[in-house]
Every structure is written in structure tokens, then in C-alpha cells.
Nuclear transport factor 2 family protein
Amino acid sequence: MSLSNKEILEKANAAVTAGDNEGFLSFCTEDTKWTFVGDKTLEGKQAVREYMAKEYLEPPKFMVDHLIAEGDFVTAIGKISLNAEGEKKIDYHYSDVWRFHDGKMTELTAFVIEI
């Protein structure tokens, strides 16, 4: 039985929360594209891997308020806490819109605001 896109995102987030960045990346396509609106865009799995190594020195902590699935898209709305390179813990509100292709996360549009 194949997983729904919502279940895939939940498993991927569980991996990254456990500190398993490679486990998370196994749910992404090679050409995954992450756009942080108003900030930067990462193109390809290697760029995301490098970003995670720098930004996720400690595994991020998620509190998902809503997870909404429709077709090839899953939207997650909630809060995330990060300890980025050389910084103390920072809390953010976020809204992530994930696009899926063939059971993998292929594109992220992220709206992130510091609390």
C-alpha cells in the first residue's frame, strides 16, 4: 500500500526531527527546489543537504497546527524552533506548501516569520 502525500510529509518530518537529515532527503526528488519567500531558493538535493547541515545543527522542533492535502500539494502550518549556525534557538511561524511528484517531495514554497 502506498503512502498518501500527507503521510509522506509526516514521515519525512519525523526523520528530520530525529536528526536523520538523509532519511528526510530520501523523501525528496533529486531536483527538489525549496523557495523561502523573500529570502533564498535552493535547487537540488545537494543544496538542501548543505542547507540542513548548516541550519539544523540541532534537529528542528515542529508543532504542526494544520496539515492540508489536495491533489499533488500538502500545506503545513505551524511553528518551528531552530538552532542555526552560531545562533541561539529561534522560534518561527511557518506555512510550507509542498508539491509532490511520484510520491516524492519535489518543491517547497516556505513562508517563515520569526516570532
Remarks:
- The helical segments are 5-17, 21-25, 45-55.
- Residues 5-17 form the longest helix (13 residues).
